[in-house]
Amino acid sequence: MENVSNSMAARLCERFRGFLPVVVDVETGGFDAERDALLEIAVVVPTMDGEGYLRPQPAVFSHVEPFPGANIDPRSLEITGIDPDNPLRGALSERMALDHVFTAVRLGMRDSGCQRAILVGHNAAFDLSFLNAAVRRVGHKRNPFHPFSCFDTATLSGLAYGQTVLSKSVLASGHHFDTREAHSAVYDAERTAELFCTIVNRWRQLEMFEREHIGLNVL
């Protein structure tokens, strides 16, 4: 069993050149990563099964306290439905929230043998900009993510399905999307992870088909 687990970890590590793809979704108080509040963050760390297919794991999530002086646009709150002043949110400081999700990411890196994580997001530059801004604000020295490279599922789903909107991309990939649950970091991260794994696994299926097809021709 240990040899099988080690083999699966090695395959995941090799699949993305030593990078561990980690889906990240953030909910914010606006579009300016330097001035607007980070309000929610969720990560989904995938694993790889014995057949070489990616499987999303449960999301790791935190509500986040707005940093001192953060801007919060009421229009953003109308979209997300977040009440930053609700004491029942159980929000963590930016530092504690980052520590919480980074711990899950580093465990995934350890188990897969990957040297660094790479952010996967739908319109990934947005999520990466808010993640990097929070890292800078708190002076975090153990950010496991690559500082500028990312995988964008909007681009990937545009290629695979001709769709770029998350809800339409998820539906085109054969999965369910509940618009009533959208704009929650957990829900959007889980759907984005589902989408990413489906696209990567579709490529894996094509690879396996080609190998079998070539093998039949040789015979």
Order of helices and strands: HEEEEEHHEHEHHH
The oligomeric status of these chains comes to single chain
SS-based class: alpha/beta
General form: globular
Helix content percent band: 40-55%
Biggest β-sheet: strands ordered side by side in the sheet: 5-2-1-6-7
- End-to-end C-alpha gap: 34 Å
Strand content: 15-25%
Tally of DSSP β-strands: 7
Biggest pleated-sheet summary = 5 strands, mixed
**CA-atom Rg in angstroms:** 18 Å
| Mean pLDDT value | 93
Given the structure, what is the number of helices? 7
Poorly predicted segments: none
Notes on the structure:
There is one protein chain. The protein is an alpha/beta fold and 219 residues long. The chain is built from 7 helices and 7 strands. It has helices spanning 2-15, 74-80, 94-112, 124-138, 153-161, 166-172, 185-218; strands at residues 19-28, 38-44, 46-48, 54-56, 60-63, 116-121, 145-152. The strands form 2 sheets. It has a 5-stranded mixed beta sheet, sandwiched between helices. A two-stranded antiparallel sheet has the order 3-4. Helix 4 (124-138) links the parallel strand 6 (116-121) and strand 7. Helix 5 (153-161) packs across helix 7 (185-218). The chain is globular. The model has no long low-confidence stretch (mean pLDDT 93).
Reconstruct the topology from this structure:
Elements: H1 2-15, E1 19-28, E2 38-44, E3 46-48, E4 54-56, E5 60-63, H2 74-80, H3 94-112, E6 116-121, H4 124-138, E7 145-152, H5 153-161, H6 166-172, H7 185-218
Parallel strand pairs: 1-6, 6-7
Antiparallel strand pairs: 1-2, 2-5, 3-4
Helix pairs in contact: 5-7
